[in-house]
Amino acid sequence: MAMFKRYTGLTVLWALMAGSAFAMPPAEDTKARALLTRIETARDVSFIRNGSEYTAANAAEFLRRKCARDWDRLASARAFISTCASQSSTSGKPYLIKLAGAAPRPSAEVLGEWLDVIEHNTK
Q1: What is the mean pLDDT of residues 12-26?
Q2: How far apart are CA 91 and CA 87, in angstroms?
Q3: What are the two backbone dihedrals, phi and then psi, of residue 63, each rounded to the nearest 5 degrees?
Q4: Which of 24, 52, 72, 112 is the most exposed place for a label (fewest CB within 10 A)?
Q5: C-alpha distances in angstroms, 66 versus 34, 62, 81?
Q6: 43-76 pLDDT, tens per residue?
Q7: Alpha-carbon distance 94 to 79, whole Å?
Q8: Domain residue spans of the chain
Q9: CA-based nearest residue to 79, from 112, 56, 122, 119
Q10: CA neighbor of 57 nearest in space, from 46, 68, 71, 67
């Protein structure tokens, strides 16, 4: 019984250490959250998911919910884009962003450009 408790304690400790080893660094977390805010406040933008158009605020809320469970496993803001914000996990179809007066583009491209601006402004 004592042996079981010892291994259980070690297992819990290892799990906690492993979880923190994969947590997004604070600077990356800040950039990913800034990107979500940028999505949420975008003007004249439509987000297209599985053929349906959504407002920027709806898209940001969807991405927050979609990624909430895995947030601590993401390594960076770019991982947020590639893991959560680039394609449907159910259909595999890429998400698209339609900027005012332009044709829809893959969200990974647009969000990558927006992240470039965020990164440039934080230097």
Answers
A1: 55
A2: 8
A3: -65, -35
A4: 52
A5: 17, 6, 12
A6: 999 999 999 999 999 999 999 999 998 898 999 9
A7: 15
A8: 24-121
A9: 112
A10: 46
Pair 109, 85: CB distance under 8 Å: no
Q: Say whether pTM exceeds 0.85.
A: no
- The token duo for 69 is 């469970």
CA distance 58 to 73: 24
pLDDT of residue 123: 73
Quick check: 111 and 62 in contact, CB under 8 A? Answer: no
> Token digits for 110?
């647009």
Please state at what angle helix 107-121 crosses helix 77-84, rounded to 10 degrees: 170
**Which amino acid is located at 72 in the chain?**
D
Tokens read off for 77? 């803001």
Q: Is 117 helix (H, G, I), strand (E, B) or coil?
A: helix
Report whether 109 contacts 123 (CB < 8 A).
no
